[in-house]
TrEMBL record:
This is Putative aldouronate transport system permease protein. It comes from Cohnella phaseoli. Belongs to the binding-protein-dependent transport system permease family. One of its GO terms (biological process) is transmembrane transport. GO terms for cellular component: plasma membrane. Pfam families: BPD_transp_1 (PF00528). Residues 80-288 form the ABC transmembrane type-1 domain.
Amino acid sequence: MNVTSIRRENTVSPIANALLNAMFLLLALACVLPVLLVVIVSFTHNDALVNDGYRFFPTKLSWIAYESLFKDYSTLARAYVISIGITVVGTGLSVILMALYAYPISRQDYPFRKFFTFFLFFTMLFNGGVVSKYIVFTQALGLLDSYSALLLPLLIIPFNVIIMRTFFQATIHPALIESARIDGAGEFRIFFRIVLPLSLPVLATMALLGTIVFWNDWFNSLLFIRTEEKYPLQYLMLRVLNDVQYLRSNVQLAAQNPELMSNLPDESLQMAFAVVCMGPILLVYPFFQKYFVKGLTVGAVKG
């Protein structure tokens, strides 16, 4: 059998190729169109949303959502800086701590490997709940109205640690560790000079997942933050939207200021906030994309 016949047998048929391209095109549109609709709705007037609903071609456009959003731009900018700081610091600490936890339990020669693996798995099944969490952070640790309360609960994610452990087991060969030991390297030097450089795919994947978790977190702010100057972006968005919904549901205010209430944005303001909040994630994702699939597939949990 010559090379030409082998190539012809392995070539996808034109019909199958067209079907695959159509399927991937539909999947791409399913990902892009909702984002595009969010952007369009953020520029849609409230009357058009009430009368026509969500449309890709609205009958009436308006900038009022963005005007309301950026009216107090200093508050929005401060919340942006706080969220970026928490996300950067939290993601960096989270990746390092999870790697420090996952690496020892991936080593067959570590005597307490089973205990700490069981302890990690146990926390995936059971937790103390919101009340005990609030008591520990506010009374035992004294972290009420502190940025540390936004960082500590999300630093260790058990499932991500298991993915990292499996990646280390599949990638870092014991012979490599032994050869480094023979050359006189200590455990910390082996970890930082050998293990981490060989684990960039899973580290980048965990960094991307950690970035999304810290950036989207609002519940911990609801529990622990009391000062308005310390509100992160997501919690600020929640407060503003709740205030707008309260104003729109206030019958007395609607009777006194019908024009104001008719122009007060609600759903368009939500979409404008979503557009503003999605920016950093869209900027961060391309830097981690080439590591993302490899980090998840190599570190997938095996039976």
